[in-house]
Amino acid sequence: MDKEVILRELQFKAIRSSGPGGQHANKVSSKVELTFDLATSEGLSVPEKERLLKRLDTKLNKDGNILLQCDESRSQHKNKDLVIQRFFGILEAALTVRKKRKASKPSKSAIEKRLKSKKIASLKKANRGKPEL
């Protein structure tokens, strides 16, 4: 993954942010929308693209683009930085290879300890009953 190439391929669009804000919100486009075309990216290798397509299928729109928005800050520049950080975080998380789980079984001592505690619990409950005359 070549971050500089990917950074050049990103497309940004400034939109008016929703919600309260008075006159300032009505005239300033502070919300930032990031668009990234995964299929035509030159910053990703073919195996990385396949992995991202598989792992990020829920985040892709019908054109195969990743679309992220940020309107946390009142500043367009801060929102742009935040959405870029979020985008690269999503990419890195999707590209990490998870370790395979090794099947394991409990040790003999753990099995014996569990069975012993079960036997003690069953005796305790059996002794709670009414005594036979």
TrEMBL record:
The protein's UniProt keywords, in alphabetical order, are: Hydrolase
Q: What class of enzyme is it?
A: hydrolase
Question: Superkingdom, according to UniProt?
Answer: Bacteria
Question: Mind telling me which InterPro entries this protein's record contains?
Answer: Pep_chain_release_fac_I
User: Which residues lie in Basic residues bias regions?
Assistant: 115-133
User: Pfam families given for it?
Assistant: RF-1
- Please list the GO biological process terms of this entry: rescue of stalled ribosome
Give start and end of each Prokaryotic-type class I peptide chain release factors domain.
Answer: 8-123
What's the Enzyme Commission number for this chain?
3.1.1.29
Q: Which GO terms describe its molecular function?
A: peptidyl-tRNA hydrolase activity; ribosome binding; translation release factor activity
What PANTHER family does the record point to? PEPTIDYL-TRNA HYDROLASE ARFB
What name does this protein carry?
Answer: Aminoacyl-tRNA hydrolase
Source organism (scientific name): Maribacter algicola
